[in-house]
Write a structure and sequence with these properties.
- This protein has 125 residues and is mainly β.
- It has a single domain, classed as Nucleic acid-binding proteins (OB fold (Dihydrolipoamide Acetyltransferase, E2P), Beta Barrel).
- It is built from one helix and seven strands.
- A five-stranded mixed beta barrel has the order 1-3-4-6-5.
Length: 125
């Protein structure tokens, strides 16, 4: 049986993207998107931690500055680990496959990638 794991989120970047490199040389770009929504006349903000990988991540770095409006397409990935106190912890991140920049910005261009650019066994989470 096949299940679909697909998410689309729009919002603004909370801070500049953070770049790291794996020992294998693969680039990881981490960033957070703030999505505003209204519920019963009350505004709520939801924060989504995201990561892009490989050459696609390297291409995105110059455009990933705080406040930039983006639309993120990707899939959810769950990380599990044990904290220093022995407690089990979990986090859900968005594995980014596509970023589109909001209209009206200097970066109003689409950048597309596929999961095939990042081997699954090289994922840090």
């Amino acid at each position: 049986m096949s299940f679909t794991n697909h998410i689309v989120v729009d919002g603004n970047l909370v801070r500049d993207g953070e770049v790291k490199f794996l020992p294998s040389g693969i680039c990881i770009l981490n960033f957070t998107v703030a999505h505003n929504t209204k519920r019963d006349e009350k505004e709520e903000v939801h924060y989504f931690d995201c990561a892009a990988f490989g050459k696609y991540a390297e291409m995105l770095v110059p455009s990933m500055s705080k406040g930039t409006p983006v639309l993120i397409v990707g899939k959810l990935q769950q990380r599990r680990w044990e904290g220093k106190d022995g407690a089990k912890k979990t986090a859900i991140n968005i594995f980014v496959t596509q970023v589109m920049f909001g209209q009206g910005t200097k970066k109003a261009e689409a950048a597309v990638a596929t999961d095939k650019e990042m081997p699954a066994d090289d994922l840090p989470f």
